[in-house]
Write a structure and sequence with these properties.
This protein has 110 residues and is α+β, with helices and mostly antiparallel strands. The protein has helices at residues 25-33, 86-92, and strands at 2-4, 37-40, 48-53, 56-61, 78-80. The model has no long low-confidence stretch (mean pLDDT 85).
């Protein structure tokens, strides 16, 4: 995967929802603080994009465009990805365990 600086990123709206609670908030944090790293499979018209911040990685896009070897840099990280990425993730790592996350959202009535 290729590391891109934030100013070279494609439009992220289609990749990661904004304002959503849970893991997707990591992208907003990485953009606002410039604390994370952004990875793509190719610079022009990427098919896969990952944001890495701390020990967490969010992976989005077309899992068929990703080779298991490309995920090697994410060893010892918590990877959050849609279900279709599971086969390539399992191929890339010896030990994979899935975890359920629960997000508490507090709504206030107007």
């Amino acid at each position: 995967m290729i590391n891109l600086p934030p100013h070279r990123l494609p439009a992220l709206a289609g990749w990661f929802p904004t304002g959503a609670p849970g893991p997707s908030a990591l992208t907003e944090h990485a953009l606002a603080t410039e604390a994370g790293r952004w990875w793509v499979d190719r610079v022009v018209h990427p098919r896969v994009i990952a944001v890495e911040c701390g020990h967490h990685v969010l992976l989005r896009g077309n899992p068929q465009a990703l080779k298991p070897k490309a995920l090697a840099r994410f060893t010892e990280r918590h990877i959050e990805a849609p279900g279709p990425f599971l086969p390539v993730i399992r191929s890339a790592f010896d030990h994979v365990s899935s975890r359920q996350r629960m997000v508490h959202v507090r709504c206030f009535a107007a």
